[in-house]
Amino acid sequence: MTPPKLLNRLTLFVLLGLILQLTTLAADDRFLLSSEGSGRATAYLESPKIITYQGKTHVAWLDTPEEGFRIRIRTLDHKSDTWTKAVTIGEADDNHGGPALTIDAEGYLHILYYSHHHPFRYRKSVRPNDASEWTPYEEFGINLTYPALVCAADGTLIMTARRSYDNEPWELEMWTKKPGNTWARRQALLKSRHGNYCQFAGSLAWGPDHKTLHLGTRIYEMPDDESIAPTTIVGYLSSPDGGTTWTRSDGRAVKLPATADNMDVVASGRIKEGRVLNAGSIGVDPQGKPFLPYSIRTQDTSQTYLASPVGAGKWRHLLMNQFLPEGFREWDVFMHGGVAFGSSGQPTVAATMMHISVDGIDWGEVTTELIRFRSNDGGETFTGETFDKPSATEPRWMPNLERPAGFNEMPAEPSLLYTDGVRGDGLGDTLSNRVYWLPGKN
After folding, report:
1. Distance of CA 283 to the CA centre of its chain
2. DSSP 93
3. Burial, 195: exposed, middle or buried (Cβ in 10 Å; 0-12, 13-18, 19+)?
4. How remote is the C-alpha of 66 from its chain's centroid?
5. Which burial class, exposed, middle or buried, applies to 224 when counting CB atoms under 10 A from its CB (0-12, 13-18, 19+)?
6. Considering the entire predicted model, what is its pTM?
7. How do the domains of the chain map onto residue ranges?
8. Is a pLDDT exceeding 70 seen at residue 7?
9. Which of 60, 63, 87, 100 could form a disulfide with 47 if both were Cys (CB 3.0 to 4.6 A apart)?
10. What does the radius of gyration of the chain's CA atoms come to, in whole angstroms?
11. Are 186 and 175 in contact (CB under 8 A)?
12. What is the pLDDT of residues 412-439, one digit of tens each?
């Protein structure tokens, strides 16, 4: 006999599927990249995974074939509208080891992958704008996870990633690789205020001058006493010289490594207060203004905001839930995606929506669906759209937006990558999730 609570939930989804057929966009133009996707095939928001350059789009993700975790990449030739077969770049330690991708001025692709509290592996494409063959991998770093990767105007690769320690506060480290040189640690940009587990979710974005570097972050800290500091904060820093010195949004210099005490704190919350924050990948408009999306989840709901500085260290917070399409207005919006500006100069925000469960689970909750918000007025207002009828059994989630990571050529509207399938139960699960690429506008 079906329990009443489960019956009500299934009935809800059947009714939603019937009612919302006319308000949900078909995803006929999406492309199935793989049916072997891992539980975190398109995670994490820090790591760019889509590069468009001179008539081609390269897309990387994390698969789990029978032999284990594998980094895969495919290329779309826009002239012939055909995709290459998947190329395996290397293995990953577990489902945290997915790729970060960028491109230099000569068209060579660069990729980081493998690590979850290990050294990273780095490879470069053998030929420009060609993902079919790669140099042997190089290893660097100690106990690193979650890479953000960009290429500077002079060809220097810049990477930030979390550094874990046994009995010291964890850090967000910055590494660089000048053309022809090896990777070198430069400095710690962020540091936890406590000696326990920490997550930074630090994403990077270039300003239009390809010199100013913007950092958005979500610092999740575990203090011994929760009354000492917020458990989660969404923060911001910028560097006017490509990562050498760093300031707050009002230009005040920040001593490194920064903490939640001396950076721009866009939003904050304590778990004991019933508030958990998440940040998406940061984006920058054509005038150089940063936009940082984030969400606040409570036991009963999740609200997502798009924050932008308004001067004097203050930020505007635009509620994105108000732009949900008709028929979905009661859903909760959760930030596991980001914001990016295409060549049109208009922002696109990718996020997820769901029904917050009674037990508070949100990571891979089965009602999770992909939501994309488009703007035609520079981010003042948005139009939201979905792509499938809601599912009662599997989430569609972990969107990763195409964004300026170096010398890639942005389309008018960024494309995105997402996972269609379950999270799994552990770090080493072998799954068969679908991995989709969804185009924007050319």
Report:
1. 11
2. S
3. middle
4. 27
5. exposed
6. 0.93
7. 25-438
8. no
9. 100
10. 20
11. yes
12. 999 999 999 999 999 999 999 999 999 9
Instruction: Report yes or no: 206 and 288 within 8 Å, Cβ to Cβ.
Output: no
Structure tokens at 296: 């606040």
Whole-number percent of the chain with pLDDT over 90 = 83
DSSP track, 357-373: -TT---TT-TT-EEEEE
First-to-last CA distance in the chain?
52
Per CATH, the architecture of 25-438 is what? 6 Propeller (2.120)
Burial bucket for residue 312 (CB in 10 Å: 0-12, 13-18, 19+):
exposed
Residue 23 pLDDT more than 60? no
Sign of CA dihedral 301, 304, 310, 311: positive
Query: How far is CA 271 from each of CA 170, 227, 268, 292, 376, rounded to the nearest angstrom?
Result: 20, 10, 10, 22, 36
Confidence of residue 359 (pLDDT cuts 50, 70, 90): low
d(CA 206, CA 290): 10
Residues 6+ apart with CB under 8 A from 75: 56, 57, 58, 59, 83, 84, 130, 131, 132
The secondary structure element, H or E, covering residue 16 is: helix 4-19
Is the pLDDT score of 10 beyond 50?
no
Query: Tokens standing for 335?
Result: 């930030």
pLDDT at 349 over 90: yes
DSSP assignment string, 212-275:
-EEEEEEEEE--SSTTSS-SEEEEEEEETTSSSS-B-TTS-B-PSSB-TTTSEEEEEE-GGGT-
Closest alpha carbon to 351 in 367, 336, 368, 330: 336
DSSP SS3 for 71: strand
Tokens read off for 361: 């689970």
Give the span between the Cα atoms of 338 and 292, in whole angstroms.
Answer: 8
Burial 72-91 (b: 16+ CB within 10 A, else e): bbbbbeeeeeebeebbebbe
Backbone CA torsion sign across 192, 311, 212, 48: positive
- State both tokens at 94: 């577990």
CA nearest neighbour of 206 among 157, 138, 161: 157
